[in-house]
Amino acid sequence: MKKIEALTVGIVVLSMFAYVAIAPVILVIAQQDNAISIGDAGASDSDNKPPIVANPTVDPLIIPEDTDNEPLWGELAELMVNVTDESKIKNVTVKLSAIGGGSKEPMAMGGGSGGGSGLGVRLAVMFNIGNYTENNLPANEAPALWTVYNYSINTSVGTARWNETSGTYEPYYLQVNATDRYNNSNTSVSIELIVMKNGDVMPYNGDGEVDFMHDALYLVRHTKGVPGYENIRDNIADVTGDGEVDFMHDALYLVRHTKGVPGYEILH
Fold first, then answer.
1. How many domains does the chain have?
2. 210 and 190 in one domain?
3. Which domain holds residue 19?
4. pTM to 2 decimal places
Protein backbone atom coordinates (compact mmCIF):
# COMPACT_ATOMS: atom_id res chain seq x y z
CA MET A 1 0.00 0.00 0.00
CA LYS A 2 2.80 2.41 0.90
CA LYS A 3 4.49 1.80 -2.43
CA ILE A 4 1.25 2.50 -4.26
CA GLU A 5 0.62 5.68 -2.27
CA ALA A 6 4.16 6.89 -2.89
CA LEU A 7 3.77 6.19 -6.61
CA THR A 8 0.48 8.08 -6.69
CA VAL A 9 1.95 11.09 -4.89
CA GLY A 10 4.89 11.06 -7.29
CA ILE A 11 2.61 11.13 -10.32
CA VAL A 12 0.57 13.99 -8.87
CA VAL A 13 3.67 16.03 -8.06
CA LEU A 14 5.09 15.33 -11.52
CA SER A 15 1.83 16.36 -13.11
CA MET A 16 1.87 19.63 -11.20
CA PHE A 17 5.39 20.42 -12.42
CA ALA A 18 4.36 19.50 -15.96
CA TYR A 19 1.37 21.85 -15.73
CA VAL A 20 3.51 24.67 -14.42
CA ALA A 21 5.95 24.20 -17.27
CA ILE A 22 3.39 23.76 -20.01
CA ALA A 23 0.64 26.17 -18.98
CA PRO A 24 2.64 29.39 -19.55
CA VAL A 25 3.52 28.22 -23.07
CA ILE A 26 -0.11 27.60 -23.89
CA LEU A 27 -1.01 31.01 -22.48
CA VAL A 28 1.64 32.79 -24.58
CA ILE A 29 0.45 31.11 -27.75
CA ALA A 30 -3.13 32.09 -26.97
CA GLN A 31 -2.10 35.67 -26.34
CA GLN A 32 -0.12 35.83 -29.58
CA ASP A 33 -3.03 34.47 -31.60
CA ASN A 34 -5.32 36.97 -29.95
CA ALA A 35 -2.90 39.80 -30.72
CA ILE A 36 -2.91 38.87 -34.40
CA SER A 37 -6.68 38.82 -34.43
CA ILE A 38 -6.90 42.16 -32.64
CA GLY A 39 -4.26 43.63 -34.94
CA ASP A 40 -6.24 42.66 -38.04
CA ALA A 41 -9.42 44.03 -36.56
CA GLY A 42 -7.68 47.29 -35.68
CA ALA A 43 -6.29 47.66 -39.20
CA SER A 44 -9.72 46.95 -40.62
CA ASP A 45 -11.22 49.73 -38.51
CA SER A 46 -8.47 52.22 -39.34
CA ASP A 47 -7.76 51.30 -42.96
CA ASN A 48 -10.89 52.63 -44.63
CA LYS A 49 -8.96 54.42 -47.36
CA PRO A 50 -8.79 53.04 -50.89
CA PRO A 51 -5.43 52.26 -52.51
CA ILE A 52 -3.61 55.04 -54.32
CA VAL A 53 -3.18 54.42 -58.06
CA ALA A 54 -0.65 56.47 -60.04
CA ASN A 55 1.31 56.64 -63.30
CA PRO A 56 -1.10 54.94 -65.71
CA THR A 57 0.92 54.23 -68.85
CA VAL A 58 0.68 52.21 -72.04
CA ASP A 59 3.36 51.14 -74.52
CA PRO A 60 2.74 51.70 -77.32
CA LEU A 61 -0.12 54.20 -77.12
CA ILE A 62 -1.42 53.18 -80.56
CA ILE A 63 -1.90 49.61 -81.80
CA PRO A 64 -3.70 48.16 -84.82
CA GLU A 65 -6.76 45.95 -84.68
CA ASP A 66 -5.80 42.31 -84.38
CA THR A 67 -7.75 41.20 -87.44
CA ASP A 68 -6.67 37.55 -87.30
CA ASN A 69 -7.02 37.17 -83.51
CA GLU A 70 -3.36 36.17 -83.24
CA PRO A 71 -1.28 38.92 -81.64
CA LEU A 72 1.93 39.34 -83.62
CA TRP A 73 4.60 42.04 -83.57
CA GLY A 74 3.20 45.51 -82.86
CA GLU A 75 -0.30 44.30 -81.98
CA LEU A 76 0.20 44.12 -78.20
CA ALA A 77 0.08 47.04 -75.78
CA GLU A 78 1.49 46.82 -72.26
CA LEU A 79 -0.73 48.52 -69.66
CA MET A 80 0.94 49.60 -66.41
CA VAL A 81 0.00 51.30 -63.12
CA ASN A 82 1.67 51.85 -59.75
CA VAL A 83 -0.32 51.10 -56.59
CA THR A 84 0.25 51.65 -52.87
CA ASP A 85 -1.93 51.17 -49.78
CA GLU A 86 -1.76 51.12 -45.97
CA SER A 87 -2.57 47.42 -46.04
CA LYS A 88 -2.08 44.55 -48.45
CA ILE A 89 -3.34 44.86 -52.03
CA LYS A 90 -5.76 42.07 -52.87
CA ASN A 91 -5.84 42.58 -56.64
CA VAL A 92 -5.64 45.12 -59.43
CA THR A 93 -7.89 44.64 -62.45
CA VAL A 94 -8.39 46.44 -65.74
CA LYS A 95 -11.73 46.55 -67.56
CA LEU A 96 -11.41 45.39 -71.16
CA SER A 97 -15.08 45.12 -72.16
CA ALA A 98 -14.86 47.93 -74.72
CA ILE A 99 -11.96 46.51 -76.74
CA GLY A 100 -12.87 42.84 -76.78
CA GLY A 101 -9.58 41.00 -77.04
CA GLY A 102 -8.31 37.88 -78.72
CA SER A 103 -9.48 34.39 -77.83
CA LYS A 104 -6.06 33.67 -76.30
CA GLU A 105 -6.42 36.57 -73.88
CA PRO A 106 -6.50 35.16 -70.34
CA MET A 107 -9.56 36.55 -68.61
CA ALA A 108 -8.79 35.84 -64.98
CA MET A 109 -11.98 37.49 -63.74
CA GLY A 110 -15.36 38.18 -65.27
CA GLY A 111 -19.04 37.57 -65.16
CA GLY A 112 -22.04 39.75 -64.59
CA SER A 113 -23.71 41.97 -67.10
CA GLY A 114 -22.40 45.20 -68.49
CA GLY A 115 -24.83 48.08 -68.00
CA GLY A 116 -27.85 45.91 -68.69
CA SER A 117 -26.66 45.16 -72.19
CA GLY A 118 -26.36 41.44 -71.54
CA LEU A 119 -22.66 41.50 -72.42
CA GLY A 120 -20.25 40.05 -69.88
CA VAL A 121 -17.97 42.51 -68.13
CA ARG A 122 -14.45 41.55 -69.17
CA LEU A 123 -11.95 42.09 -66.38
CA ALA A 124 -8.32 41.04 -66.43
CA VAL A 125 -6.21 40.71 -63.31
CA MET A 126 -2.98 42.69 -63.72
CA PHE A 127 0.33 41.11 -62.73
CA ASN A 128 2.62 42.24 -59.92
CA ILE A 129 6.00 42.77 -61.61
CA GLY A 130 7.95 44.49 -58.85
CA ASN A 131 8.14 46.97 -55.97
CA TYR A 132 9.95 50.19 -55.24
CA THR A 133 10.12 52.61 -52.30
CA GLU A 134 9.40 56.30 -52.62
CA ASN A 135 11.55 58.26 -50.18
CA ASN A 136 10.69 61.85 -51.10
CA LEU A 137 8.06 62.12 -48.35
CA PRO A 138 7.91 64.40 -45.27
CA ALA A 139 10.25 63.36 -42.43
CA ASN A 140 7.37 62.28 -40.22
CA GLU A 141 6.02 59.83 -42.79
CA ALA A 142 7.34 56.36 -43.52
CA PRO A 143 8.55 55.68 -47.09
CA ALA A 144 5.73 54.46 -49.30
CA LEU A 145 6.07 51.00 -50.84
CA TRP A 146 4.71 51.00 -54.38
CA THR A 147 3.89 47.95 -56.47
CA VAL A 148 4.05 47.99 -60.27
CA TYR A 149 1.32 46.09 -62.13
CA ASN A 150 1.11 45.32 -65.83
CA TYR A 151 -1.02 43.52 -68.38
CA SER A 152 -0.52 43.08 -72.15
CA ILE A 153 -3.49 43.17 -74.50
CA ASN A 154 -4.47 43.00 -78.13
CA THR A 155 -7.75 44.31 -79.56
CA SER A 156 -10.54 42.70 -81.54
CA VAL A 157 -11.40 43.52 -85.13
CA GLY A 158 -13.88 46.40 -85.34
CA THR A 159 -12.60 48.21 -82.26
CA ALA A 160 -10.93 51.08 -84.15
CA ARG A 161 -13.18 54.10 -83.59
CA TRP A 162 -12.85 56.72 -86.32
CA ASN A 163 -14.55 60.06 -85.65
CA GLU A 164 -15.48 61.77 -88.90
CA THR A 165 -16.12 65.08 -87.15
CA SER A 166 -12.75 65.36 -85.46
CA GLY A 167 -10.87 63.41 -88.13
CA THR A 168 -9.15 61.25 -85.51
CA TYR A 169 -9.29 57.83 -83.95
CA GLU A 170 -11.04 58.12 -80.60
CA PRO A 171 -9.12 56.75 -77.61
CA TYR A 172 -10.37 54.18 -75.16
CA TYR A 173 -10.02 54.74 -71.43
CA LEU A 174 -9.60 51.37 -69.73
CA GLN A 175 -10.68 51.58 -66.10
CA VAL A 176 -8.37 50.22 -63.41
CA ASN A 177 -9.74 48.88 -60.11
CA ALA A 178 -7.26 48.50 -57.23
CA THR A 179 -8.69 46.71 -54.18
CA ASP A 180 -7.03 46.13 -50.83
CA ARG A 181 -7.54 43.26 -48.36
CA TYR A 182 -10.44 45.12 -46.72
CA ASN A 183 -12.22 45.62 -50.06
CA ASN A 184 -11.52 49.34 -50.26
CA SER A 185 -11.40 50.08 -53.99
CA ASN A 186 -10.09 52.85 -56.21
CA THR A 187 -11.61 53.06 -59.71
CA SER A 188 -10.66 56.67 -60.45
CA VAL A 189 -7.77 55.91 -62.84
CA SER A 190 -7.99 54.79 -66.45
CA ILE A 191 -5.35 53.92 -69.05
CA GLU A 192 -5.61 55.55 -72.47
CA LEU A 193 -5.31 53.36 -75.57
CA ILE A 194 -5.85 54.22 -79.24
CA VAL A 195 -6.75 51.55 -81.79
CA MET A 196 -6.24 52.13 -85.51
CA LYS A 197 -7.18 50.06 -88.51
CA ASN A 198 -4.38 47.77 -89.59
CA GLY A 199 -2.76 49.20 -92.72
CA ASP A 200 -4.14 52.75 -92.34
CA VAL A 201 -0.70 54.26 -92.89
CA MET A 202 -1.55 57.49 -94.70
CA PRO A 203 -1.74 60.12 -93.33
CA TYR A 204 0.45 59.43 -90.28
CA ASN A 205 -2.53 59.40 -87.88
CA GLY A 206 -4.77 57.63 -90.37
CA ASP A 207 -7.96 58.64 -92.14
CA GLY A 208 -10.23 55.79 -91.06
CA GLU A 209 -9.93 53.90 -94.34
CA VAL A 210 -7.52 51.36 -95.80
CA ASP A 211 -7.37 51.73 -99.58
CA PHE A 212 -5.10 51.45 -102.60
CA MET A 213 -4.67 55.11 -103.57
CA HIS A 214 -3.63 56.35 -100.14
CA ASP A 215 -2.30 53.52 -98.03
CA ALA A 216 -1.00 50.86 -100.42
CA LEU A 217 0.76 53.31 -102.75
CA TYR A 218 2.19 55.24 -99.80
CA LEU A 219 3.60 52.02 -98.34
CA VAL A 220 5.12 51.07 -101.71
CA ARG A 221 6.85 54.46 -101.98
CA HIS A 222 7.93 54.31 -98.32
CA THR A 223 9.56 50.91 -98.71
CA LYS A 224 11.24 52.05 -101.94
CA GLY A 225 12.76 55.07 -100.22
CA VAL A 226 10.93 57.73 -102.22
CA PRO A 227 11.55 61.18 -100.65
CA GLY A 228 8.53 62.59 -98.83
CA TYR A 229 7.22 59.19 -97.77
CA GLU A 230 9.43 58.56 -94.74
CA ASN A 231 6.83 59.17 -92.01
CA ILE A 232 5.00 56.01 -91.03
CA ARG A 233 3.87 54.01 -88.00
CA ASP A 234 5.72 50.71 -88.25
CA ASN A 235 3.20 48.67 -86.23
CA ILE A 236 0.35 49.91 -88.45
CA ALA A 237 2.34 49.31 -91.65
CA ASP A 238 3.56 45.81 -90.73
CA VAL A 239 0.52 44.11 -92.24
CA THR A 240 2.22 40.70 -92.35
CA GLY A 241 3.20 40.75 -88.66
CA ASP A 242 6.81 39.65 -89.11
CA GLY A 243 8.38 42.58 -87.26
CA GLU A 244 9.72 44.31 -90.41
CA VAL A 245 8.20 46.77 -92.87
CA ASP A 246 9.41 46.06 -96.40
CA PHE A 247 8.34 46.05 -100.03
CA MET A 248 8.22 42.32 -100.78
CA HIS A 249 6.04 41.40 -97.81
CA ASP A 250 4.06 44.36 -96.51
CA ALA A 251 3.75 46.75 -99.46
CA LEU A 252 2.84 44.08 -101.99
CA TYR A 253 0.53 42.39 -99.49
CA LEU A 254 -1.34 45.64 -98.87
CA VAL A 255 -1.61 46.30 -102.61
CA ARG A 256 -3.18 42.87 -103.13
CA HIS A 257 -5.41 43.32 -100.08
CA THR A 258 -6.80 46.64 -101.32
CA LYS A 259 -7.26 45.20 -104.81
CA GLY A 260 -9.29 42.28 -103.49
CA VAL A 261 -6.88 39.51 -104.50
CA PRO A 262 -8.02 36.17 -103.02
CA GLY A 263 -5.85 35.01 -100.14
CA TYR A 264 -5.02 38.52 -98.98
CA GLU A 265 -8.23 39.34 -97.15
CA ILE A 266 -6.74 39.37 -93.63
CA LEU A 267 -4.10 41.85 -92.48
CA HIS A 268 -1.85 40.28 -89.87
1. 3
2. no
3. 1-46
4. 0.75
